[in-house]
Specification:
The chain has helices spanning 8-16, 27-40, 53-60, 64-76, 129-135, 174-179, 184-192, 210-216, and strands spanning 80-83, 87-90, 105-107, 116-126, 142-152, 155-165, 198-207, 223-233, 237-246, 251-253. The protein is an alpha+beta fold. The protein has a 6-stranded antiparallel beta sheet with strand order 4-5-6-9-8-7. Strands 1-2 form a two-stranded antiparallel ribbon. A two-stranded antiparallel ribbon has the order 3-10.
Length: 258
């Protein structure tokens, strides 16, 4: 009697299952994982169309409905964008509706437009134990550190320090950061093939020290909002540690909960 052959998705799930754990997961989740593998490998670049549901169904030997459910989840996570009558595209931080998805500081009133960026420093250094742990690299590995001030309406409002894996962001310069007109994460996509897909934040209140006060044009000891963010690319690979100090005398931190 003939036996049925396992599908591509089933084979992939069995190969990836950690020892001692059940190999089963819903089929649409397996398809989602396979699509994520292709995104991570750069098969489809940010802003590019991915194959149709019909083509993906044929590729993975599953039903079109299974592919649709997988893509629905990817769309809900802002990894892909559906465009009516055009298809499904890899999400990009250049898109107007997602470009400032990770920036939650908004003015108390009015629309102030995009931030003006002043790059204070961009240098390569050896990762401290703390930075290495956050970025999943070894202590002493090369990282890029960036310090900048974001101003709104000419008022310095955010002081940020960023640390990036040195091997991934080889060649990043202060000039690139200063000259790029769009969001920084769009620059990372375009020049380094890295897309930030999610982030974790820790928030606390702090008092400005003398140097921070000078850069943000506030009094020493003025209250600031400290926001530490760890951003990840596909498959939860950490790609950026960012620490920001926010003035909140004319702005507030807004988060939509659902």
């Amino acid at each position: 009697m003939a036996t049925s052959q396992p599908s591509t998705a089933e084979n992939a799930a069995a190969d990836q299952a950690p020892p001692g754990t059940p190999a089963f997961s819903p089929l649409y989740q397996q398809i989602k994982g396979l699509i994520l593998q292709s995104l991570e490998a750069g098969e489809w670049k940010p802003g590019e169309a991915i194959p149709s549901e019909m083509d993906l169904a044929a590729r993975f030997r599953v039903s079109q409905g299974t592919v649709r459910k997988a893509i629905d989840e990817l769309a809900a996570e802002n990894l892909v964008v559906r465009r009516q009558g055009k298809g499904t595209f890899v999400a990009t931080h250049s898109e107007q509706h997602v470009r400032y998805r990770f920036l939650k500081l908004v003015p108390d009133s009015g629309d102030e437009g995009p931030a003006q960026r002043t790059i204070l420093d961009c240098r390569r250094l050896r990762a401290s134990a703390e930075v290495a742990r956050a970025l999943a690299v070894r202590t002493g590995d090369s990282v890029v550190q960036v310090r900048r001030v974001l101003s709104f309406g000419g008022v310095p409002t955010i002081l940020e320090d960023m640390w990036l894996p040195g091997n991934t962001f080889k060649g990043l310069t202060a000039e690139q950061l200063a000259e790029h007109q769009g969001p920084t994460y769009a620059l990372f996509e375009l020049e380094f093939g890295v897309r930030m897909v999610r982030a974790e934040e820790k928030i606390r209140a702090v008092a400005a020290d003398a140097q921070q006060a000078q850069l943000l044009e506030v009094d020493a000891g003025a209250p600031l909002l400290s926001v530490e963010r760890l951003s990840y690319t596909y498959n939860d690979v950490p790609m950026e540690l960012r620490r920001g100090l926010y003035r909140t005398d004319t702005h507030h931190y807004r988060n939509d909960l659902s």
